[in-house]
Automatic annotation (TrEMBL), chain A:
This is Uncharacterized protein. Residues 128-137 have a biased composition (Basic residues). Coiled coil: none annotated. Gene3D superfamilies: Vaccinia Virus protein VP39. Residues 182-199 have a biased composition (Low complexity). InterPro entries: DNA_methylase_N6_adenine_CS, Euk-Arch_PrmC-MTase, SAM-dependent_MTases_sf. Keywords: Methyltransferase, S-adenosyl-L-methionine, Transferase. PROSITE patterns: N6_MTASE. Residues 115-137, 170-212 are annotated as: Disordered. SUPFAM superfamilies: S-adenosyl-L-methionine-dependent methyltransferases.
UniProtKB/TrEMBL annotation, chain B:
The lineage of its organism: Eukaryota, Fungi, Dikarya, Ascomycota, Pezizomycotina. This is Uncharacterized protein. It comes from the Eukaryota. It comes from Humicola insolens (Soft-rot fungus). It holds the Pfam family Trm112p. Belongs to the TRM112 family.
C-alpha cells in the first residue's frame, strides 16, 4: 500500500477535506488492474510523455498521490501533471501537497538507494551508494479555472475528476471577490483591522494571506459537493467536454454516487459517436456497499480501437 | 507554473479555441523564478513529440530565452547535444512564471498569474 499524502497543512475551512470519495480514487489507482491498464496504454520508453489533468484537485491528495507515485501507478516517471480548480485556495493547497509529497517520496528513494547497510539483517555493508531512479512525475502547475476550459483540445491523456456530486436544489456560484481572492485581500484586511495597524512588516506585505468570511467559506465548501440536479450538473458539463479535451489515447476517471445513476451515465457515454474507435465506460472501483448498491464508484471512460 | 505549461494551455473563451491566434498565450510583465530540477535526458526525449515546437519557440523568445532552432531536434540529435539538453531543461522543467499576465492573441483577454497560479475564470460576459 502506498502511503496517503499528508494534507495536514490544508485549510479545511475553505478546501474540501479528503474523504471516502478521495480515498476510493487512491484505492482505484492502486489496483493491479488499473496500473496495468495505464502502463499498457502509455508504454514507458516507446510512447510520448503523458499529460495528466485533475479537475478539482481540492486538497491535492489525489493529484499528489498520482504525481509522486507515477513510476508505480503509471509505470513511468516522465508524467506531467496539472490541476484546475475554481477555488483559489485549493490551487494553492494542492500545489503545496504535491510539492511535499514528491519531496518525501524522492528523499526516501534517495535514502534507500544510498543506504550502506540494506537493513535486512544480511549486514551487506559497503554497498556503493547509487543514484536512485526518480519515482515521481512533474507537476506543471495548478490553475484557477472552470473544468478543463484552459486546456488545448486533445491535450489530456489522463483526466481525473471527483466532482461535486451531491444532488442539491441549487448550484452555488463563486462570489466575484473569490474569483480573485488575492486582489480582494487588501479591502478585506482593512475592514477587519480597525485597531493598532500602525506597523506592518515587509514580509507580511509580500505575501498577503487572503482573508475569507464565514459566508465565503461556506460557498467554497458548497462548490466542492453541490452537484445540482441529480448531482450531475457539473459532471455532465465535464463529460460533454471529454471528446474534445482527451487525446486519442486519453482516458478519464470520473467518480459518481448512486444518485447520479451511474448505469445511465455509462450507457450515454457508450452511445457517443466517434470518428475513430468506440467509446467505452466501465466501473473500475467502488465502495460503501449498502443493500446491494454501491454508494460510490469510479467510472473509467476511454476510446477502444484507435 | 512551469513555462512548459504554456504549451498545453489556450484561451478559455469558447470562440477562441478554433482561432490559431489563441495559442500560445503570450506572457506579459512576467516574473520568472527557477527551480532546481535534476536533468533527465529521457524525459526531454519523450517530451519532444508532445511539444508544439513553433509555439515553444515563440514562448522562449517572448520570455527572453535564447532563440530555439527552427526545427525541433530528432531524439538522436537531442541525446547527443548536451547544450540543447541543458537549454531545454532550463526552459521547460526549471523555469516558472510566478507573477504576470497571459494574453490571448485572438480576443486580447489577459489572465492574471499570481503566486504562480494562473486565473482562467472568465468574467460573465465572456462565458
Ligand atoms: C469533491 S471535491 C474533490 C477534491 C479532491 N479531488 C478530493 O478528491 O479530495 C470537488 C472539487 O472540485 C472543485 N470544483 C467544483 N466545481 C468545479 C469546476 N466547475 N471547475 C473546477 N473545479 C471545480 C471544488 O472546488 C473541489 O475542490
Ligand atoms: Zn481569447
Amino acid at each position: 500500500m502506498l502511503p496517503t499524502p499528508s494534507t495536514s497543512h490544508v485549510p479545511y475551512s475553505r478546501v474540501y477535506e479528503p474523504a471516502e470519495d478521495s480515498f476510493l480514487l487512491l484505492d482505484t489507482f492502486s489496483q493491479d488492474s488499473e496500473t496495468s491498464f495505464l502502463s499498457t496504454r502509455f508504454p514507458a520508453g516507446s510512447s510520448p510523455t503523458p499529460l495528466l489533468l485533475e479537475v478539482g484537485p481540492g486538497s491535492g491528495v489525489v493529484l499528489a498521490f498520482l504525481t509522486a507515485h507515477a513510476a508505480t501507478l503509471l509505470g513511468r516517471s516522465d508524467v506531467l501533471t496539472l490541476g484546475v480548480d475554481v477555488n483559489w485556495f485549493a490551487c494553492e493547497a494542492a500545489s503545496e501537497t504535491v510539492r511535499r509529497t514528491v519531496g518525501e517520496v524522492e528523499a526516501e528513494a534517495e535514502g534507500v538507494a544510498g543506504q550502506v547497510d540494506v537493513g535486512n539483517g544480511s549486514g551487506e555493508k559497503g554497498v556503493k551508494p547509487r543514484k536512485s531512479q526518480r519515482r515521481s512525475g512533474h507537476l506543471l502547475a495548478t490553475a484557477q479555472g472552470d473544468l478543463a476550459s484552459p486546456l488545448r483540445p486533445g491535450a489530456v491523456d489522463v483526466l481525473v475528476f471527483n466532482p461535486p456530486y451531491v444532488p442539491t436544489d441549487e448550484l452555488p456560484t463563486l462570489p466575484k471577490e473569490l474569483a480573485d481572492p488575492t486582489t480582494a485581500t487588501t479591502t478585506t484586511t482593512t475592514t477587519t483591522t480597525t485597531t493598532t495597524t500602525t506597523t506592518s512588516n515587509d514580509s507580511e506585505k509580500k505575501k498577503p494571506v487572503p482573508k475569507t468570511t464565514y459566508a465565503q467559506e461556506s460557498t467554497l465548501l458548497a462548490l466542492a459537493y453541490a452537484g445540482g440536479r441529480d448531482g450531475m450538473e457539473v459532471t455532465d458539463r465535464l463529460l460533454a467536454s471529454l471528446p474534445e479535451i482527451l487525446s486519442e489515447r486519453g482516458v478519464a476517471y470520473v467518480l459518481l454516487c448512486a444518485q447520479n445513476r451511474p448505469e445511465e451515465v455509462k450507457a450515454r457515454v457508450r452511445a457517443w459517436e466517434s470518428e475513430r474507435g468506440r467509446w467505452m465506460a466501465e466501473t473500475v472501483g467502488s465502495s460503501g456497499k449498502k443493500a446491494g448498491w454501491e454508494r460510490l464508484q469510479v467510472v473509467r471512460i476511454w476510446r477502444e480501437g484507435v | 507554473m512551469k513555462v512548459l505549461t504554456l504549451n498545453f494551455l489556450t484561451c478559455a473563451v469558447k470562440s477562441c479555441k478554433t482561432s490559431v491566434d489563441s495559442f500560445p498565450l503570450h506572457p506579459k510583465d512576467a516574473e520568472l523564478v527557477s527551480d532546481d530540477v535534476e536533468l533527465n535526458p529521457q524525459l526531454l526525449v519523450n517530451l519532444l513529440p508532445r511539444i508544439d515546437w513553433n509555439a515553444l519557440r515563440t514562448t522562449a523568445t517572448e520570455l527572453g530565452f535564447p532563440t530555439l532552432p527552427e526545427q525541433p531536434p530528432t531524439p538522436e540529435e537531442l541525446q547527443a547535444d548536451e547544450k540543447m539538453l541543458q537549454d531545454l531543461h532550463k526552459l521547460l522543467m526549471e523555469t516558472q512564471i510566478s507573477e504576470g499576465k497571459l494574453v490571448c492573441g485572438a480576443c486580447g483577454h489577459e489572465y492574471a498569474v499570481r503566486e504562480g497560479i494562473a486565473n482562467f475564470l472568465l468574467p460573465s460576459h465572456l462565458v
